[in-house]
Design goal:
alpha/beta, Rossmann fold, 2 domains, five-stranded parallel β-sheet, 17 helices, 5 strands
Amino acid sequence: MVDKILIVDDKDINREMLSAILEEDYCVMEAENGRVAIEIIEKNFEDLSVVLLDLLMPEVDGYEVLEIMNRRGYLEKLPVLVISTESASNVETKCFEAGVSDFIRKPFDNAKVRNRVKNIVNLYRYKNNLEEKVEQQTEKLRKQNNLLQKQAERLQKSNEQIIDILGTVVESRNLESGEHIQRVKEFTRILAYQMKDDYAEYNLSDEKIQLIVSASALHDVGKIAIPDNILLKPGKLTKEEFDIMKSHTTRGCQILEDIEDAWDENYAAASYEICRHHHERYDGRGYPDGLCGDEIPISAQIVSIADVYDALVSERVYKGAFTMEEAFKMIVSGDCGVFSPKLLDAFGKVRSKFEDLANRNKNKKSADIA
């Protein structure tokens, strides 16, 4: 079925130009102002794939359209690409804060418009499908709660399914390969067992370590709720954007609380403390709660180093990969925040195991590409 798009612009010539660019690939609908646009969106919301929106229009302008769409929850499922002559420096920021997916200034390049529309449509289709699957799975798990509580084996399997599904959604929204979660789990396992051998005071049994390893997959689950323009931004984040990005810790906890009745309380508790506290730092300068020392759960401390190490040695949209030697020195020297001396001691002992795992993953990725 051909995707439907809506072009909203008060100038006939602009609508005709955009329609000519896109009509070969999409079923094009048009609105000459914001009032008509809202009417069309209300009637065709389920079928629309993207809205191309001008800002300066009579009756109801583009800003009002965005406000109405936001208020009615349309922007969560329906992306908006703003195409405008507005030249004020704060216009793009204002639009992105309102929830738009992209911004193009007039006069526009035909190829740019075509490619941006294609990318947005594909990304939102993938995102909406994944979120729908998560909603379906979560609802299914809610209904099975009583039965799962009586059957420990099936309960454990369902716990892991929840973690894998939510973890997959995070990686997909973050445009990662999907392997980051598995790497963090393995780094977590290595470091946790070394801590078990060296520091009995943390009571890290094999069962607890397995729980931490499994729950580590949800450390970034809150990124599901971070806007695309911040989560996928290739450049440096502004202070305001970074504050929003940091909120993935607390937003993730809200997501976990919403499904707490659907899984085992031990899994829920471990996932919650890792999700909330994996950015805390031993000197109290982390977030969101500014915990100090061993106020930070040992599970979150372990996952924190695993996550930081993998982030350093991996390519991201905003940076290249550091060498393993650079990554080790940055963590030990405090360039990535202050960690527990005990944890750093254990990290030093398993350095070679971390590097072996990183090399295996690097070689596997190269083989997959070849």
